[in-house]
Amino acid sequence: MCLMMLDGIGSFCAPLTVHGCENMSKKNQQPNEAQEMNNNLLVGYVRKSNAGAALKVSINTSAFSDCSTYVTSDGQAYVPLVISLNALGKVLSGERAVTTLSQLQD
Fold it and tell me: At a CB cut-off of 8 Å and minimum separation 6, what does 78 contact?
């Protein structure tokens, strides 16, 4: 599996790891963000739609099935996921193409 990035100059295919972030570049991350990523389960990616009016969320089904869940008092089960606000802001402003959708691991 790989992530295709198109930047107007060309494209490249970056290999991905579903159960970790070993192959992700950490050069643009803040030190505490890089440390947090080591304790997260990579579940998917978030990007702006081509029209820019929506966010597109892509979830890897295998990784999603590995996520832990919690149950509310009404019996509904949920999967808690996180997106970095800093990274999402960069996606929304056009500084980044995508950001990760993750589950915090204790």
Answer: 69, 70, 71, 72
